[in-house]
Amino acid sequence: MAMETSFPLQRMSREQLASILLSEEASKVAVIDVRDNDHVGGHIHTSTHVPTPSLDYRIPEIVRTLADKDIVVFHCALSQQRGPSAAMRYQQERERKVKKGEVATNCDVGIKDGQLQKIPSEETRRQEVYILDRGFVGWQEKYGTDDRLTDAYVPDIWTD
Questions:
Q1: Which of 10, 20, 67, 143 could be 104's S-S partner, Cβ–Cβ 3.0 to 4.6 Å?
Q2: What are the tens digits of pLDDT across the range 43-56?
């Protein structure tokens, strides 16, 4: 049975992502590339490659390691199936971990019940999850040759 998520899937344009990655805010963003064999030919600078078949066992780890990020952007080749599916699975796992108290939250340290403990603040650390609109195919059309934004780009793979 699929879990519902209380957060709708949002899309981010390639221009928005490029702007963030070139800004001082870049360290607050994680890009997750869920392409499989179609990962050859280039990838977004600083992205993490998590092939779709490995998502089931990697999602809990990804949620933990990205807890400090403000924005997480998922993509595949076109961001029509694998990217959105991965983003939804990530959100569901993150919600589950937040409810269980396993995800970092904004908290203070204080004394509770005679022991030093983390005391959650009123608001759990918010994290925005996006899908890169048009996926890597759309990204490479504009930024494939931009070495600041794309690594290991092979133009011959992307031309008709």
A1: 67
A2: 999 999 999 999 99
Q: Do 138 and 119 touch, CB atoms closer than 8 A?
A: no
CA distances from 26 to 23, 29, 44, 52 (A): 6, 6, 13, 25
Q: Exactly one of 32, 76, 87, 103 is catalytic; which is it?
A: 76
CA gap 33, 66 in Å, rounded: 14
- pTM to 2 decimal places: 0.84
Tell me 62's DSSP state.
Answer: H
Residue 108, classed as helix, strand or coil, is strand
Mark whether 107 is an active-site residue: no
Distance CA 92, CA 86 (A): 10
**Rounded CA separation 30/130 (Å):** 10
> Residues 16-40: pLDDT tens digits?
999 999 999 999 999 999 999 888 8
Beta strand pairing call for 115-120 and 107-112? antiparallel
